[in-house]
């Protein structure tokens, strides 16, 4: 069965940690991955840079390769960027069951997401783990559901007739968008943490400075 991934985020800014982990999942499962840019995230603070800037940086970061695709469906939709709406849109466009790609921290809080039970009935979950990482505590109802759906690898994920879960180990790159924004605010350049074209764009538009709350 053909699979297609959803990797969502504010990408404020997009950095090499996002890109490397998304790439590893795409290669390991052998599927395209859509980098879905959130306009108005419901579970976190609002982004520092405006959606147009974040969209421009995402496109710059993904130039010249075929596995990772910038996706603006949440930018084109008004209101909060609920993942269940994104998944429904994705399924209508491509068919099949998409793979929702999450970090382990995000996965532990899934039971606080909008219509989370419905969401988990409509997607495969790919939870990114890191070497030496530890399982984090989850609510019992969510934990039972995740355990019931876990499979051993990409082949089983591809053959699954219903929603499944696979834990994919990815590289541990300790890069943080929050730390990058702080460096820029303090006048430092986060070289080798963001793609060069993205860093040039940030400098050109004076993003993440005290006066650039746009």
Helix-strand blueprint:
Blueprint: E1 5-9, H1 16-29, E2 33-37, H2 51-61, E3 68-71, H3 83-94, E4 99-103, H4 104-108, H5 116-120, E5 124-129, H6 140-149, H7 154-159, E6 165-169, H8 177-185, H9 196-204
Parallel strand pairs: 1-2, 1-4, 2-3, 4-5, 5-6
Helix count equals: 9
CA radius of gyration is 17 Å
Tell me the number of structural domains.
Answer: 1
- The CATH class is Alpha Beta
The overall strand count is: 6
CATH superfamily: HUPs
* Low-pLDDT stretches: none
**Content of β-strand:** 5-15%
Alpha-carbon distance between the two ends:
43 Å
3D structure, described in words:
The structure is a single chain. The protein is of the alpha/beta class and 214 residues long. The protein has one domain: HUPs (Rossmann fold), CATH 3.40.50. Strands 3-2-1-4-5-6 form a six-stranded parallel sheet, sandwiched between helices. Helix 1 links the parallel strand 1 and strand 2. The model has no long low-confidence stretch (mean pLDDT 93).
């Amino acid at each position: 069965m053909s699979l297609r991934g959803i990797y969502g985020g504010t990408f404020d800014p997009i950095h090499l940690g996002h890109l490397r982990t998304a790439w590893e999942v795409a290669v390991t499962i052998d599927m395209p991955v859509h980098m879905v840019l959130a306009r108005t995230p419901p579970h976190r603070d609002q982004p520092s840079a405006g959606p147009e800037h974040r969209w421009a940086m995402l496109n710059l970061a993904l130039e010249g390769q075929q596995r990772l695709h910038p996706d603006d469906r949440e930018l084109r939709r008004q209101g909060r960027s609920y993942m269940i709406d994104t998944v429904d849109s994705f399924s209508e466009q491509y068919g099949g069951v998409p793979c929702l790609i999450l970090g382990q921290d995000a996965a532990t809080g899934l039971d606080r997401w909008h219509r989370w039970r419905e969401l988990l009935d409509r997607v495969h979950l790919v939870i990114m783990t890191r070497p030496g990482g530890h399982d984090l505590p989850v609510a019992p109802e969510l934990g039972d559901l995740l355990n019931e759906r876990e499979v051993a690898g990409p082949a089983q994920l591809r053959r699954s007739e219903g929603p499944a879960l696979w834990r994919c180990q990815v590289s541990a790159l300790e890069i943080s968008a929050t730390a990058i924004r702080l460096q820029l605010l303090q006048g430092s350049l986060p070289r080798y943490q963001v793609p060069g074209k993205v860093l040039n764009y940030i400098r050109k538009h004076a993003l993440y400075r005290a006066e650039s709350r746009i």
